[in-house]
Write a structure and sequence with these properties.
mainly alpha; 2 helices
Amino acid sequence: MVLLQVATGEASSFPWAFTAVYAVGFIAAVTIGSIAWYNSKRPPGWEEKQRPDIVPEVDNQDPNV
């Protein structure tokens, strides 16, 4: 059925929804990755750098250990 729609040129909302899911997922991955990176051990040369205000402080102590 999808091939018939493509062949006849019928419009579908699937590509827009598919693109939106990927865009939102990419933004979420970048945001979560940035928070994790800023809360990790600083690489050489970054030990004294300030944490951006928008990045929350995360306690790295595991209470289950």
